[in-house]
Amino acid sequence: MAITDFTKPEYFTNRELSWLAFNDRVLEEARDKNNPLLERARFLAITQSNLDEFFNIRVASLRKMVAVDYHQPDASGLTPQAQLLAIAKRTHSLVDKQYNTWQRSLVPRLATEGVMIRDFAELSSHQQQFVTDYFHQELYPVLTPMGVDPTRPFPFLANNTLNLAIWLVRPEDKGKGQKARSFAMVQIPDVFPRVLRLPDEANHFMLLEEVIRQFVGELFIGAEIKDTALFRVTRDMDLDVAEEDASDLLKEIQSQLKKRQRGKVMRLEIESTMSKHLRKRLIKWLEVGEDDVYAIKGPIDLTFINSLVKQVKAKAEWLYPSYTPYIAPELAEGSIFDVIRQRDVFMHHPYDSFNPVTNFIQQAAVDPQVLAVKMTLYRVSSRSPIIASLKQAAENGKQVTVLVELKARFDEENNVHWAKELERAGCHVIYGLVGLKTHAKLALVVRREEDGIRRYMHMATGNYNDVTAHFYTDMGLFTADTEMGIDASNIFNMLSGFSEPPYFHQLAIAPLALRDFLMDRVDDEIAAVKAGRKGFIQMKMNSLSDTTMIQKLYEASAAGVEIHLIVRGICNLKVGIPGVSDNITVHSIVGRLLEHSRIYCFYADGEEKVFLSSADLMNRNLSRRVELLFPIMQDDIRERILNLYQLMWSDNVKTRILMADDSWERPDLRGVAQLDVQEYLIAHNKTLGDELNATPETPAAPDAQQDRHFIPLQAPEDQS
Question: Which domain holds residue 439?
């Protein structure tokens, strides 16, 4: 009998444990000896920053649920309290694995190459003098010793700050026994680089906290230092914005940013050598439990590795080879609008340069024929050329409307700054819809031309961020399609006013219709299989956790639809369940670049419909965010994306395959050609321009919309 109930807890993996499994896949890259040495170190630093944010947000959210007696289990059957217990067990194991990777693998390997982090006692006399001078001349004036006694309460410690705890005996306490010892602390200032380069040796360094520890006695003159130990706190950093009650969202966000700094402590990291007495005191003062304490066997906070890598005088083989993103000659010179008017243009970053995207807004700012520019901004760089162009457009008299998402996590402060800057320049700045984050990536340029008003659009899977565009893989589309242009105008009217468009011609948006649209496409594949025809679904996303969508995919699998999923991060779907998910295969690509594009492909009786989107299949994306999904209507672009997907699916170097026991395993490489899809596409783009120039150019009819970027991509027969 066919299974029709797809809601059983055993059909789902817990979201938080699945995320921790993803971070473990990143850690595998740090342990992979085939990766360049310093890139391995960077992967280790990424696992640290990932884990920090996990405690800041996810653990904090579960703690709040427990605090208000919320005991509802998730789809996998785990209550918030049960999830916290499982997380603690998994994260303690993960941290041990992180530091084993650092101490036993990376430190010895770095040392063989002459890259060393030294203790003061290991330094030459000249290096010791250098460190001594650095402490007295640079650090001493900035450091603040803080004692704790009845008149000086335990100080507030900001999120992720590194601190040195000190047990000392003051002159008046001498001879009174161990109980007379006093507690003090010194915060390691983040205004200095955490890694100090030493003289005389090219790649010898000392950590800032060890410099301070060496001379900490000079901050407590007359006292005798008995013990020191480093520690770090991680706080609840989630914003709690009551938008319905906020008369001014900008001011409310600014207020919440201040409150966020004082969130409860979620994690306490201490040196493994910390005395029991010091540990007990910190646990009491910071109000944490034993499960929240992580005894670290190495430098606390491995993100210092990023500073180390930047300072190392590296050999070429220690880093990934550099590459130059491709830019088509017609996009590098002349009017970008002339190109888009003739045909849609597909971009695949970072293999394709991000410059055409920034140039699109820059040209709009100075083009006298442009009347209006409208754009959504979620995350932008600290020196964004797009912000500069939007300001210039407003100053040049264009109608400029910018939706700045103030609630973009950990970019709130940056976005508040840009919102004020844009308003000062004369832009009309909006903050979106109450209760929803605007995550859609959409830019609209309205231009007066000889034949009337024409809309030009850029839609994308990733942010308008010129920095992350160098290492996030994303896809984008330039188009002047009339129906999409009307839809784009309606979206902006909805965001800026009270417009409620009755329907959209080509675009689908969340939370209105995106989930239903995708489920309808899945239903089409189910219907095809039941009628004896082929059904095939290919999807790529960052995370898959929406219970309703997973159940729909199970229904499709049970009906006989073949489903290929590429999921970088969270995957709550289970594979290999007989009668439920035995037609579903899940891959995860974790490599040099961060896979960020969202692709949704449906066989559709041979039509092979392809859609790109800003949305992952997560409840937050489909229910609580404004997201955009757009069709690929030009045949050559659609074929290119399908070929790209097949290349990604064929990767067997950076891919892990989800197994029925929820583990992730690398493909068996015995007897097969190896393919690292990211490295292949980087290498391919180096020759892409030459191949295009060698191809005779055939003028395309306006309705053909021939994309001159397209070159059929196939997996190489042999890359060994």
Answer: 329-505
